[in-house]
Amino acid sequence: MFNFNNINWALLDQALVSGVNFLSGILLARLLGLTDYGVFTLLWMMVLFLNNIQYALIMSPMMSLRPETYNISSRMFYSSFSVLQLVYSFASLIVVASVMVVLSGIDAFGISSDVILPLVCVTVFYQVQEFFRRYFFSNKMFVVAFTSDVISYFGQIVLFILAAYLNEFSLVTALWLIACTSLIAILYSIPRFVKISIDIDVYKMIYIKNWSYSKWLVATSIMQWFSGHFFIFITGIVLGVTSVGAVKSALNIVGVLHILFQGLENVIPVEASKWYIKHGAIKLQSYISQVLLYTVLGTIAISIPILLFPKDIMGYLYGNSFVEYYYLLYWCVAIYVVMSFGLSLKVALRTINSTRSIFIAQSITGVITLFTSYMLADMFGLHGVMFGLLLINIVFISVLYFSYKKTIKMKLTN
Questions:
Q1: Does position 7 have pLDDT exceeding 70, yes or no?
Q2: Total domains present in the chain
Q3: For residues 100 and 119, is the Cβ–Cβ distance under 8 A?
Q4: Residue 65: is its pLDDT beyond 50?
Q5: Domain span at residue 225?
Q6: Does residue 110 come out as left (phi exceeding 0), alpha (psi in the -120 to 50 range) or beta?
């Protein structure tokens, strides 16, 4: 049932992206130190927040709705999404600049106004490069997508090392270098995108369908950021940015699992949509079960070395000063194993247009986060933070599972 050629390319590309992110995290932590790395983590949370909304509003519909819109030309379909991306990036620019002006005036966060311009550039360029990346995957242009990611992600490592060698590395420098490599990848991608075609009536029809599909996903992405990242934000307030750096350092290591998660995420939505349209709910259910099994087993297999050698891994990658935080790796593995169940469930619910269920699940975890994050961090320190992250993931997956079983049962009886 799998198209293994597509999966292999997706995994290869994600291996590159996750591998570079893994190395970047190590370099940033080593070169910036725990405190500045904690500040970088807080800044990057803003980039990811806007990127999550971008995925829900633009990229997920672009990848999932194409099989349902073959009456519209490919050129017109992707042109409409490119225009939407430009509008969204401009709005993101304004949001980031405004928020950073405010945050730079709050001493508790230790954020300098010098980071505002490079962070704005990173936000916009990162979004546009990611948009092209998803477009290439949607159209099975795997080599082009891979080349673009080599430029954007591997280029970061090269420039980080060069800047460190020249003793010019700093938080501001790191942001500028990330923006630079993303921009170069964009310039490579533009000639390989469809020629823009504009038809207001067709655009309107696509956007209406897009909003019908994505409205709950957008709301969910906001709640998802809140429920997941708000714990990290509270960590910065209660325990300080050094603790933020420690948590992020541990998450970087277990983040190698994103090779599996994001590789599947690049392909599964399109494949699930095709199976559902051609064969109905029964085949979709079988396909989703297979994806879930592979994802969970892969997650466990990759996690075994981390569980066996946590101190050695922390010390080798980050240095002896990080070893005291080795216990965070146990928490991170548990969190990612639970998360591995969610990939296939979310894809299934999106495919059968039950995105409201995802929003409900995320809303519940958001409420839990709001009422427990400060208390857990204040009373139990980093253990409390990690327990909170594990708890909200368990609740989230549980709600998704019962929603999926209920919805698929209704589809099968109709």
A1: no
A2: 1
A3: yes
A4: yes
A5: 4-413
A6: left
